[in-house]
Amino acid sequence: MTNHINTPTSEEAAVQLQTGDMVYITGRIYCGRDAVLPKICKLIEEGKLGETGIDLQGSVIFHTAVSPAGVGPTSSNKLEIEGSFETLSKAGVKMHLGKGAIKAETVAMLDSVNAVFAVMPPVTALLGNNTLSSRCVAFPGLGMEAFYELEVKDYPCIIAAAHGKSIY
């Protein structure tokens, strides 16, 4: 099934997503990978995320760096990235977007908090055309690995894990 998702994503929209669905994401998404996601998790755990102006409720986290060359997914099963799924999901993230297989335990945890994992092939040129704007929102000292917010239109992905099931 093909779905068009606007961010922020509702609980109801996340419930309807099924493994194998094709999804097009439009709206604001956050970008982060192994250098910054543990820092975002620490802000959540310390109750300081609100001080940054970042609102994760119904959000999408894209596992990527933002560089002048564009954006493309990184492996989501890196320890620092996959290890952030639970904290971020409990803080409101509804979709984690990257590439590669994630652990069965992570698939089960996503189900328990009504969040999903979606994969995207490395298509930097296509994504460049669908990225409307980019803004650093936290940890600018990390350069292209800082926490960014993108405004996107019709970002393509496939739901890889939802409701306790995985395509892997």
Would you summarize the structure shown here?
By secondary structure, the protein is α/β, with parallel strands linked by helices. It has helices spanning 11-16, 37-45, 79-82, 85-90, 104-112, 124-130; strands at residues 2-6, 22-31, 60-62, 95-98, 116-119, 131-138, 147-162, 165-166.
Question: How would you describe this protein?
Answer:
The chain has helices at 11-16, 37-45, 79-82, 85-90, 104-112, 124-130; strands at residues 2-6, 22-31, 60-62, 95-98, 116-119, 131-138, 147-162, 165-166. With 168 residues, the chain is an alpha/beta fold. β1 (2-6), α1 and β2 (22-31) form a beta-alpha-beta unit. The mean pLDDT is 93.
Features:
5-stranded mixed β-barrel; 24% helix; 6 helices; fumarase; globular; 31% strand; alpha/beta
Mean pLDDT: 93
Shape: globular
State the separation between the terminal residues, measured CA to CA: 18 Å
Lateral strand order in the biggest sheet = 2-3-4-5-7
The secondary-structure element order is: EHEHEHHEHEHEEE
Helix tally equals 6
Q: CATH superfamily name? A: Fe-S hydro-lyase, tartrate dehydratase beta-type, catalytic domain
Rg (C-alpha, Å): 14 Å
For the record, the CATH class is: Alpha Beta
Number of separate strands: 8
Low-pLDDT segments: none
Q: Considering DSSP H and I runs of 4 or more, what fraction of the residues is helical?
A: 10-25%
Q: How does CATH name the architecture?
A: Alpha-Beta Barrel
- What is the makeup of the main sheet? 5 strands, mixed, barrel
Strand content: 25-35%
Q: What structural class do you assign from the helix and strand content?
A: alpha/beta
The CATH topology is what? fumarase
The total number of structural domains is: 1
